Every structure is written in structure tokens, then in C-alpha cells.
Amino acid sequence: MLPSALEKAVYGVYATTAIHLADKHGVFGFLVDQAAPTAEIADKLGLDGETLDRLLVLLDSFGVIDRNEDGAYLVTPEMAPYLDPRSPRSVGGFLSHVMGSTIGRLPHLDGYLTDGKSAVDAALPAPFEVMYKTPKLTEEFLAAMWELTYDVSRELVPMAGLDQVGHLVDVGGASGPFCVAALEATPGLRATVYELPEVEPYVADTVEKFGLQGRLDFAAGDFHRDEFPATDCVAFGYILSGWTDETGLELLQKAYRACSDGGRVLIMDRLFDDDRRGPLPTAVMNLSMHVEAKGRHRTSAEFIGLLEAAGFVDCEVHRSTQDKQLVIGHKR
Questions:
Q1: pLDDT per residue as tens digits for the range 219-262
Q2: Which of 102, 115, 176, 241 can pair with 98 through a Cys bridge, CB separation 3.0 to 4.6 Å?
Q3: What domains can you pick out in the chain, each with its CATH number?
Q4: What distance in Å separates the CA atoms of residue 66 and residue 72, rounded to the nearest whole number?
Q5: Three-point CA angle 16, 283, 137, nearest 5°
Q6: Are 28 and 93 in contact (CB under 8 A)?
Q7: What is the Cα 68 distance to its own chain's centre?
Q8: CA-based nearest residue to 29, from 84, 88, 79
Q9: Which residue, 93, 99, 85, 202, is CA-closest to 147?
Q10: CA distance 24 to 82
Q11: 8-state DSSP, 230
């Protein structure tokens, strides 16, 4: 028998596939509300019983779901926030992006190892040309970003000092999950999502859904080529980890120019521990950034170094109970 850590690593690809399929076909949503045996689940959801049973046995073996003494499967209260498709912490959107986009790029790692990333990527489209290539891919990517961002943002917003801010610009802010969390918690705040033009309809949907007319708007732009709108606060959520230090510094310098005196920049991202041995989700996404983008994940000290090089001072680090953390820099 393999050591436990190696066993889970080797067989994890099967579990990821099973979790994605169970979410896609409504199995988790069904089991959150009631325990049921395979035959009942298959009948209610119109699924093939044998295939479903094999998926459920695997998920039970991994501890993702449970099976009671009557042979009925169920989602435990511990797992429900992450498996219930109605929950803001659901992993479903993220896994849809992984299975629909990331998994197809992982084979490039073989070429990266032998020939280097720059040589292999020269023949490939740019990252966001892939993510925004079709409406379906765009929708899946934005759904994944919402699930990774909105819930943890409700923890990060109180740490960000937004009560001292009149206007916030979220650079690469997707369909607006951080802006929504910030506006919900901060009366009087206005926010702008600064994104590629393809994202505008999704931000419009967010404005309508949350009743944020007059408080949340959209500015189209390419953050590599264009300056940012003038503001009191620039936010980067899961942005700088997608780019090299050189590009990250350029973006932070643009943020410095956009900020009013006394303004601030918010970096919200996964952080490596100081010794770069973890945590595991950061190590996983650090590899993902290698194939999906052009960046890497950093320690808090590395982010502070970039902030100070761009001119920001009095940097702060705030940690949530989840994977996304907050680094703040202030403009004099």
C-alpha cells in the first residue's frame, strides 16, 4: 500500500473528476437536502446507475461524502458549504474552470521542463485569449472567480479600511465579486470594475442582481496598455500572481499614479509561507499560474517589496480564515 500522502496524490485526479461530475449533474445538490441510495439518486436525476454507483463509492472512499448504515449516501454538514451549489463557498464553478480550461493546459508542463516556458508559449495564444475565447469559457471563468472571491471578500473588506475611501477601482475585477462585498459593507462607497470589454455585460448583470445602480459601474480597458481610472483605492484580486515581477511592478506603478494622495492599494491573493513550503492550495495554484498565466505566487515580503518599489509605504498584511489574504500599501 502506498503511503497515505502519495496515495491521495496519485489517485487525486480521479477524485477531482468525480467531484466535478457529481456537481455538474446535481448529485451534491440532491444529497445536501436528503440522504439516498444510489438507485434513488439515479432515478430522480436521470443518471446511469452503475456509473453513478462507482462515482459515489470513490467519493465515499475519499471522504468527500458519507454513507450511513442503511446504505444511503449523504453530504455531511462539514462538507455542505463547499458542495452545495447554492452556497457562496461552492467549489463547483472553480472545478468547471479547471476541467474545462486548466486541465487542457497541464500537458504543456512537459515541454516547459525540457524547452522552457517561453519557447513553448511562443506558439500558444495569450492566457486571456483562451479564457475569454467564447461566451461559454468567459462565463465559466467568471463563475470560478466569483466563487473564489465573493465569500472571502466579506472577510477581507473590514480589514481594508474602506470607510476612509470614497471610490474604489477593482482592476481585473471580473463580474464584480469584491466590489459587491465592499459596497454591501461600506455605505457611501462607489466602485468601478476595470476589465476587458468582454466582461461588461456580466458586470451589468451584477448591478441589476444586487441593486447597485449608481454605486457600481464599469470601465473598459487593457491594464497592460492603459492607465487606470483616478480613484482613492486600487484593488488587485488574484491579478499580480498571474504576472512576472516586472509586469507586477508596472501595474503597481499605474496604481500609484491613479491613487489620490493618501490613497491605498489592495493586493488580495494567495500567499506562500515565508519558507515557501506551503500552504498546499498556494503551491497548487502556483503551478497553475505557470500554465494558465505568466506569474507565480509570492510571500508577503515579496509583495511588500514590489509595493515599496512602486512608491507605496506603511505596508500591512492581514490574513483571512481562507486561502486569500490581503496586503495593503499606502500612498503618502
A1: 999 999 999 999 999 999 999 999 999 999 999 999 999 999 99
A2: 102
A3: 4-87 (1.10.10.10), 147-330 (3.40.50.150)
A4: 8
A5: 50
A6: no
A7: 34
A8: 84
A9: 93
A10: 14
A11: P
